[in-house]
Please model this.
Amino acid sequence: MTVCRRASLLPRSIAAAAAVCSVLTSIAAHAQSTPPATHEGDFVAHGFRFASGVTLPELRLHYTTLGQPVRDSGGRITNAVLILHGTGGDGHQFLRPQFAGELFGPGQPLDVARFYVILPDGIGHGRSSKPSDGLHARFPEYTYADMVEAQHLLLTQGLGVGRLRLLMGTSMGCMHAFVWGETYPDFADALMPLACLPVGIAGRNRMWRKMLIDAIRDDPAWAAGEYKSEPREALRTASDLLLLAGSAPIYMQSAFATRASADQRVVEYTNASLGALDANDLLYQVSASSDYDPSARLGEIRAPVLWINSADDFINPPELGIAEAQAKRLQHGRFVLLPASERTRGHGSHTWAALWKSELVALLAATERAAP
Model:
């Protein structure tokens, strides 16, 4: 595994690099005026057994797709791309202009005229089965292994996808990408994890998560998960922690350059969070990472890996040196650290595709399948 602190990917010739730059220049000329058409669906996994041993009679997995599947002479889908969201998110987050507008349009890296893009809502998220559906704190505790298993069932049994052209994941989805690479080493042509570390969650990263979990559990209004109205003080604390975890110091110093504007941002963020968060759902979402640690099996990942973090990421601070050490254990690919700037968005840089789409173009070119 190669470690890189600039935008470059698997070793390419100077001529190939120039070709990629030419392609990107052409891509930049195409503005996406309207969002691509989407299809919504639900897959139900019957008798889904969680790692804890608990079985849910029906596990609903909601998904959004763009584009159409292309099949080879044997009927196998050849153009499927799976993109996995972060904690608290859902598949719809990838339809925002800073992501979809850079990737899915005509001539763009994941042009949906060529690719079949699948955006699932993970267990406990979006419109998939979650505690707030009615089971509340009686909903089975789920782990990242459970979430990946459910994603695999969605693809293979629900959508008929037996192999992926690309598996991309952001934040929690980034961690899922490493779990995928170890659990199903031959399922994807390439992996693109963005904004995570492939080690157990400890140190400051675990501390802010525990603070959030304790804020919910220790609030009397939570009522052991059977609250009639949301525990507002718990969610206010959670909102504060989420704002800090996703902060981008250079951008925020510029965008909120006065005390008044910074204070207003906190008020607006908190009000939006209190209107959108469910305490049980959030508790489960953050707790799901408790046993995540793919470090022991990183060498088993066979697919080429393009792993990208941002230097201003509060959750995955580069000064720890973890990424560089773990990257050496991967067989194929490269770790890229985006320099902090006014363009980066801290942990959220993963969904500002203009920052890293040149790397995606090179990854797709380097792993392109031979035409059938």
